[in-house]
Amino acid sequence: MLEMGTLETLAQLVDDRLAAGEAERGLVSRLVAGGAFEAWLSFEARLLAEENRESLQLEGRLARWRGGDAISRYYFANEYHKVDLFIGELNSSEPHADICIAAIEFKLIHNNKNWKKQADGVWVDLFPSREVKAALRPKLGRAALVGFVAKRHREGVNYPVVRSTFGDWETEVREYLLGDDGWDGRYIDRVWSGRRFPVTDDWLDKSASSFFQLHLLIPRA
After folding, report:
1. What is the pLDDT along the chain (221 residues), one digit of tens a residue?
2. How big is the CA angle at 82 (ends 218 and 145), to the nearest 5 degrees?
């Protein structure tokens, strides 16, 4: 039976892939040091979903599809209906009325002057107003896998941070997204958090304790 745990399992799979990549070749550190990588996370999540259908409870098959061979009942697509990762279910009785299982967005929030704009993007994704997104009614709901990126470059690199300590910035971001005040009567809940990855790179200040951490956020029902 499909349940919200499907999304948490997918988030954990992404986190595990990042952990393995960091151990093998410094993957997380390289991604963080280089800037934006939301698209990479989205594409990687789709591949992981394809590879782990059973653990995600998305392994069913349709015996025949439009008179052809049996195919997977569930499918995964990037940028379908303007959603970063769309999980759909084929509808055998109504071929042109596929069912949306989940709509997952991927966002990074960096400790720079644009962090509020980036956080606003999370609100917009979880409570969309654009017709093509708003019309979707995902069975498992909408979710945003959001990465907090806190880093300080070495002296001479033009990358202004907004707080002298990462803790102050992180607290402000949490309150902005998860605070009791919400936004226009709407609220966001965090249902899962991943590892807190220490980030090291030649471009970063080695004394700054830069880090990266994923959080799975959903709109409060």
Report:
1. 457 699 999 999 999 999 999 999 999 999 998 888 999 999 999 999 999 999 999 988 775 656 667 788 899 999 999 999 999 998 766 655 678 999 999 999 999 889 999 999 999 999 998 887 888 999 999 999 999 999 887 776 666 555 558 999 999 999 999 999 999 999 999 999 999 999 998 888 888 888 999 999 999 97
2. 30
Q: With contact defined as beta carbons under 8 Å apart, do 217 and 143 qualify?
A: yes
- Spatial neighbors of 129 by CB under 8 A, at least 6 apart, are none
CA torsion 177-180-184-189 (nearest 10°) is 50
Q: What φ, ψ does residue 219 adopt, rounded to 5°?
A: -70, 140
